[in-house]
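Please, structure for the following, as C-alpha cells.
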Amino acid sequence: MISLAGRDILHSWGKFVLTGIGLGLLIGVTLTMAGVYRGMVDDARALLDNSGADLWVVQQDTQGPYAESSSLRDDVVRSVLSLPGVARAANVTYLTMQVRASEGRDAGREVRAMIVGFEPGQPGEPGYLVAGRHITRSHYEAVVDVRTGFTLGQRIRIRRHDYTVVGLTQRMVSSGGDPMVFIPLKDAQEAQFLKDNDAILNDRARTAANPALNRPGVPGLLEAIQASQAANHNVNTVLVQVQPGVSAESVAEPIRRWKHLEAYTRAQMEEILVAKLIATSAKQIGMFLVILAIVSAAIVAFIIYTMTLGKIREIAVLKLIGTRNRTIAGMILQQALGLGLIGFIVGKVAATFWAPIFPKYVLLEVNDALLGLVAVMVICALASTLAIRAALKVDPAAAIGG
C-alpha cells in the first residue's frame, strides 16, 4: 500500500507539493512565533547576565529596575558596600528612549535604545567589546550595541548632548529586545532626572515666590533649595556582587530589613522578567500557536478529504477486489503524514532563513523543532480521520455502477 499511496501522490504531485509549500509557510510562521517567545526569554536572561550582578537593590515596594520604575539616592551604595559579604556595588541608571545619529550619512536616524549609566570598572559595565575601547572619559563617550547600527567614531545625540561612539558590543539588550547604549553615570543621571533649563528657572521662580522660604531666621535655605534643583543624585538601582561562597539571599535579607529597600536575587529577578514582565506576550503567542495549529489541521483535513473524494471510484475498486479497510485507511494516513512532512521541512527552512531579519530576536531551538515535528504529525493524523471515514463508507458497487 506504500506504493499505492506514492503512486497517487505522483499522479497529483503538483497539487500535493503546492499544498505542502503553503502548509510549510504556515508551519514556518508557527515555529517563528515559538522562536520569538524563546528570544524574549533569552533577552531577559541576557540582560541579567550582562549586568554582572548577584543582587539588585531598588526602591522599596517596587519590582524595579526593569519591570517598574525605581529611584534611589546615589549615596545608598556606600551603606550597601559596608554590609558583610558584599564584594562590589555600583550605582546604575536605566532609561529607554530614542537615540538620534547627529552626523554621518544616516544623520537624523533614530533608534529606540536602553541608555545605561554606569561607573567604569564596576558592575553594569559591558562585559566585552567586539570593536573599539571602553569608556575612559567622565563625559560624552558611549559604547553601543551593534544592533543600533551606529559605528565607531560616530556622534549620537542623547537629550541635549552629543556623544562619541568609542566602542561596540554585542548581545547587550533590554528585556524588550532594545539594544543598549552605555554612557557615564553622571551623564545618564542628567539625561534621566535633570530638568531642562526652562523648567529649572520656573521652579526657582516658584520657590523664590514662596513666603515660607523667605522668612527671617532661615538663612541659606532658599539658596540650598535652588542649588538642589540644578543637580540630581538619583539612580535606578545598585548592582551588587557578593563574595565567593556567600549566599546572595543572606546579603539581601538585612538590606530589606534594615535599609528599607528592596533586594532581588538572580532567581527572583528572572522570575519578575520572565513570569511577569513578558507574561502577557507569552499568552498572546500561545493563543497564536493554538490558532495556527487549528488552521493547519483544517487545511490538511480539507486537502486530504478532497483528494479522497476525487478517487471514490478507485477506492470502490479496491474494496471490490477485497482490500481491507485497514489498508485503505493506511494509504490515506500515509498521504496525510507525507503532506505534513513536506510542510514541516519547508517551514523549518523558511523559519531559518527569515528569522535573522526579524526586528526582534528569534531563537530557534532544536527541541522546539522536534516538538513541532511531532505536533505536525499528530495534527495530520487527526486531520486524516475525516477522509478515512468518508473512504470507509464507500460502497464497492460504486465501482460497477460508475
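The chain has two domains: 2-44+280-401, 60-194+232-260. The mean pLDDT is 82.
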